[in-house]
Amino acid sequence: MSISKKIVDDLVANDVSFITTVPCKQLAGVIEEVEERDEIFHIPANKEDEGMGLCAGAWMGGKRPAIIMQNTAIGVTINTLATLTQFYRMPLPMLISYRGELREPVACQVEMAVHTKALLNQLNIPTYHFHKESDADELDAILKYTFMCNKPVAILTDASFWGGYGDQ
Amino acid sequence: MIRSEILREIAPILRDQLVVCNIGLPSQELHMIDDQPTNFYMLGTMGLSSSIGLGLALSQDKTVISIDGDGSVLTNLGTLPTIANNVADNYILLIIDNGSYGSTGDQPTYAGMKTSLTAVAKACGCENVVECQDVDTGKVLQAALDSKKMTIIVSKCDSGNIKLPVITKDPVVIRDRFMTAVVS
Q1: What is the DSSP secondary-structure string of chain B?
Q2: Is B55 close to A53, i.e. CB distance below 8 A?
Q3: For the whole prediction, is pTM greater than 0.95?
């Protein structure tokens, strides 16, 4: 089974049915899988804070939401995470491509990578880092944890997890 | 008319609907005029009223009215293409367009200058976009509700604020009360 399919299977098994996405090359397979599933309403967002607003509304409407985005989005969404998701105590699994880690070909991505964990730590956001494919075995438990505690939770997925960028 | 006068006039229409209300003075005014469990007051996060309302409308069947301002829509302009391409006929976006950032001291917005949010919404692909004058807001809002079609209303009004207290309700209480109203 492909890792993208396994990830989306876990989301569906945890009743996540409203997913907003801002694309990343590394996440293309997961986003494609999300789009294909009948159980999921997929709504692409133009910016990640907008997506978090959509997720907040969906959750208050009775659906379990998730956002799929790049780690650069942490820089975009700090205010939304603090004043909406955390202040109103809402759950939000964030599946994040951790650009700028080992095997990264684009230097500028490293500039946000070095801040990513520090920012998440500063925000007291529970953070999990998927480096090897077997790390995704924890996704089911992470999703259950997110909806148990009503908090945003970050799942960072690096290039090694996705099998690198191919030939460069 | 200024925003608070519009809210006072449309309060009887809003009372029976789910309302997501914009940060700052709009929420404070609605809270003072007619506090209802069906009102979700934003205490922060400028710009996301339309997004929260759309997410809510797409996730359950009751009608949702997002009350937004011209400044807040400009902050989150990407919301209009998302709305246009994800039609929810139980969703109304009411933009109270006074051409200014009211909560911060009435600084002018570009919507009060060359930029028409009505034209922007249409260009983004929104199909039912109605621009009206402040005095007609109630009539236009009721017509939008009756049409059962997703509608964007741009209500042009005067800039100006009234003095009133901040909302001291706990956000989790606001949210929990609202979620109970959503399912009741």
Answers
A1: -BHHHHHHHHHHHHTTSEEEE-TTHHHHHHHHHH--TTEEE--S-TT-HHHHHHHHHHHSSS-EEEEEEHHHHHHTTTHHHHHHHS--TTEEEEEEE-SEEGGGT-EEPGGGTT--HHHHHHHTT-S-EEEEEGGGHHHHHHHHHHHTS-EEEEEE-B------PPP-S-HHHHHHHHHHHHH-
A2: yes
A3: yes
